[in-house]
Structures are given as C-alpha cells and as structure tokens.
Design brief:
18% strand; 11 strands; globular; Dehydroquinate synthase-like, alpha domain; 2 domains; 12 helices
C-alpha cells in the first residue's frame, strides 16, 4: 500500500492505494465518527463489492442506496434518491456517506454529503481507473444539467480515499482506456518524465499489470494532490487539471451524457488542445502527432464526433466553469509537461482548430 496526503491544513486527508484494500477495515473506521453510515453505489458495482464493504462496518448502522449506472443518470432527480435514503433512515449530522463506485457515484455522493443537513462527512472508495486517478481526489462534486456538464455542485473534500487496484480486474476494457486518458493528462500538464513512462508502459497498463497500474495511480494522484493543495477552489493553477475538458465537455453535452465516456471525450479534447497549442507556436506538430499515436494505442478517440460543428463547439464551450466575465479561458500546453491557463488565444486560431476537427 502507498499513502499520499492531500495537504489542506485541518481538512487534509490520505489517499490509500494498493491491492486488497477493501479487506482492511482500519482504512475506513477511523474516518467514521458516528454510528450511521450510508453506502451509495450503483447497480453494476453493488453485486461485486457492496457486501465486502458492509462486512467491514458491522459495528455501524448501515443504509444502502443503489443508483442506476451511467452518466445519463448524474442529475438532480437521481440525486434525490440519496436524500430519500438518508431521510427515511433518519440519518443525522454525524452520518458518513461512502461513495462506492466510479466517478458518477463519487461526484453524486460527495454533492449529497455537501448538501445533507448543510454538510456531512464522506469517504471515497473509487472502483474505476478514472475515479482512482482523478475524480475521487480534490473535492469536486456535482451533477450534470442538460445545458452543461457538472454545472451544479460544490467543493466538499472527503475524509479519505481508498483505491483498491483489485477492483480494476472487473473493469470493462473501454472504461480502462477512458481512465488512461486522465493518466496521460497528468504527464502532459506537469510531468514530462511520467508522460514518457506511460508511452513505454502502455501495453502493460492495458494488460492490467498490477504493479504498473499501482504506479500510474500513485503518480497521477501525486500530481493532483500537489495542484489541489496549491489551489483548492480552482481560482488559479488548479484549472490546468482540465486540459482537454473544455472541448471534451462540449462533446459530452452535444452527444448526450453517456454516449461518449468522459475519458473518451477528454482524449479527443486533449488532441484539440494540443492542436491549438501548436497553432499558438508553443509546441510543434510532431508533439501533436506523438499524443495522437499514444491515444490511438490506448484505444481512445483522437477527433471530434461526426456531426458537431464549429459553432456548436463555441456555443457549448461558453457554458464552461472557466468562462469569467464572458472570456473563455483555455488550458493549453507551452510544452509537454507544462500546461497553462490562458484567455488570450486569438479567436481566429481557435476557429481554425474547431474547423479542422469538424470538417
């Protein structure tokens, strides 16, 4: 097991990563202060891991909330099922919610915890690669709206994150690849050596080599923990974690939530961001091609979906949390391993990128 700390002063918390962690009650119980626990999961994960988690909590009063599985269910209507379960079982302010599942479950459980009785504790137990390397860390919680992804939510940090790499053995290949998109992102934004390591070890990661996956998760979380500690509420540098996401969120919204997995949309979005970075003169065409080839090897898309127009992209990108006072801020690469946030991209260059990917 490896342990990292997200350093946020009094609200600091550990990230535990390793094999077989769902067998270890000592990783959960110290972070549950009351007698009530609500495990929030979905229909896919519940048959696999719900009883295992419950077996660690025999000293607690446990409520189960099982949600439908899929990004298309990440909305306020489904979120109410969590509140229904908490209220029906009369959970009080000392309750702890446990998010058992992927990014959708984690985001919704965290948001429910932020809202229930004006804020209760929660724990992240991520079971997908994408959630283990990204969404379970950092305290971003929320749900989607028909007009924009993750536009309703709150910052609410977990008490701890327990990432058991054995859960990745039941992960579909498509979901594994989607998670690798976020792993690749970390190399692009802050760690060129890690990016090169991914290129060397990609086939082993796709083959689910446990040591390689553990290393990829640990290094990804190291990067995210450092950025979050520096800028918890995304007022500055934390926005670099959204490389590819402004383009990617537009794809997810246009296609309908769940048609493209989040990591797939981010992959295409990162290529678009790299293309725009090259048009700005920051990286060369060879680096754009290098990224495309890595994503192709990872079985990820490298272009926008057919049918999206440049105008559609621009309209949807304006509904983005990085838009301030009408100015669109984009995350671009000044070089591989160093991303920046800028609102000074000439509109003509952005138009060129959008037209290139939508013709």
């Amino acid at each position: 097991m490896q342990t990292l700390t997200v350093d946020l002063g009094e609200r600091s918390y550990p990230i535990y990563t390793g094999s077989g962690l769902l067998e270890r009650s000592e990783l959960l119980l110290p972070y549950i202060k009351g007698r009530q626990v609500a495990i929030v999961t979905n229909e896919t994960i519940a048959p696999l891991y719900l009883e295992k988690i419950k077996s660690l909590l025999t000293s607690k009063e446990v409520t189960e909330v099982i949600l439908p599985d899929g990004e298309n269910f990440k909305n306020l209507d489904i979120l109410n099922r969590v509140f229904d379960g908490l209220l029906e079982a009369r959970h009080n302010r000392t309750t702890t919610l446990i998010a058992l599942g992927g990014g959708v479950v984690g985001d919704m459980t965290g948001f429910a915890a932020a809202c229930y009785q004006r804020g209760v504790d929660f724990i992240q137990v991520p079971t997908t690669l994408l959630s283990q390397v990204d969404s379970s860390v950092g305290g971003k919680t929320g749900v989607n709206h028909a007009l924009g992804k993750n536009m309703i939510g709150a910052f609410h940090q977990p008490n701890c994150v327990v990432a058991d790499t054995l859960t990745l053995n039941t992960l579909p290949d498509r979901e594994l690849s989607a998670g690798l998109a976020e792993v690749i992102k970390y190399g692009l934004i802050r760690d060129a050596a890690f990016y090169a390591w991914i290129e060397t070890n990609l086939e082993g990661l796709l083959a689910r080599d446990p040591a390689l996956l553990a290393e990829a998760i640990h290094r990804s979380c190291e990067c995210k923990a450092a950025v979050v500690a520096e800028d918890e509420k995304e007022s500055g540098v934390r926005a670099i974690l959204n490389l590819g996401h402004t383009f990617g969120h537009a794809i997810e919204t246009a296609m309908g939530y769940g048609e493209w997995l989040h990591g797939e949309a981010v992959a295409a979005g990162m290529v678009m961001a790299a293309d725009l970075s090259a048009r700005c003169g920051w990286i060369d065409a060879a680096e754009v091609e290098r990224l495309k080839q890595l994503l192709i090897r990872a079985n990820l898309p490298v272009k926008a979906p057919e049918g999206m127009s440049a105008d559609q992209f621009k309209s949807l990108m304006q509904v983005d949390k990085k838009v301030i006072d009408g100015r669109l801020r984009l995350v671009l690469m000044q070089k591989v391993g160093w991303a920046v946030v800028t609102d000074e991209v000439p509109s003509g260059l952005l138009q060129e990128t959008l037209e290139y990917f939508t013709v």
